[in-house]
């Protein structure tokens, strides 16, 4: 877990800070505190403004697995921030998609199943939408189950299914984490009824979209 050592100052509920309107009207906003005693709520407001932005940038880096350390090493901070930005841009350009088509004719009087699996490694956190369509030219002699699942090596399993005599489409979505191996499995299974079964044409596809 990456570390963010930059913390916002006076960010708690009821913190002793001047209002935004008062702060923007403060003469010291342009000149700084020049003499006399500075009011604590005004100083706290100035500190909160700067430290909140620092904490936000630090958290941006840490969320991407890069340390943000308060050790005075500006060169390393700059390099790490640049890497976090590049990583984010690359992740946003890492959408993935794939499709596989398969078919089969169920056996009369016997439960028959066909399936395919698509696999990828998530380049970043995001969302997977998987869809499977099962098509045939006319009503089958028995029902067909159309099943689809998304299984993440960390996030677990999500699935969807239907069972009818007619063509159908099922879809399922899942949030996955960076680095997960994700499998999308589609299966079609007959109920074993006797009769003249028609060829089933099945299209399994997924789309991965980066997101947080």
Folded structure, characterized:
- The protein has 212 residues and is α+β, with helices and mostly antiparallel strands.
- It has two domains: 73 residues, no CATH class; 115 residues, Galactose-binding domain-like (Jelly Rolls).
- Helices cover 25% and strands 36% of the residues.
- It is built from four helices and eight strands; from the N terminus they run ααααββββββββ.
- Strand 4 and strand 5 form a beta hairpin.
- The mean pLDDT is 93.
Task: Show the helix and strand layout.
Layout: H1 20-24, H2 28-31, H3 40-63, H4 74-92, E1 96-104, E2 113-121, E3 126-135, E4 144-152, E5 156-164, E6 168-176, E7 181-190, E8 200-210
Antiparallel strand pairs: 1-8, 2-7, 3-6, 3-8, 4-5, 4-7
Characteristic key phrases:
alpha+beta, Jelly Rolls, 2 domains, four-stranded antiparallel beta sheet, 4 helices, elongated
- From the N-terminal CA to the C-terminal CA, the straight-line distance is 17 Å
| CATH structural architecture of the largest domain | Sandwich
For the record, what CATH class of the largest domain applies? Answer: Mainly Beta
What is the 3D shape?
A: elongated
Strand order of the largest sheet: 1-8-3-6
Structural class based on helices, strands and sheet pairing: alpha+beta
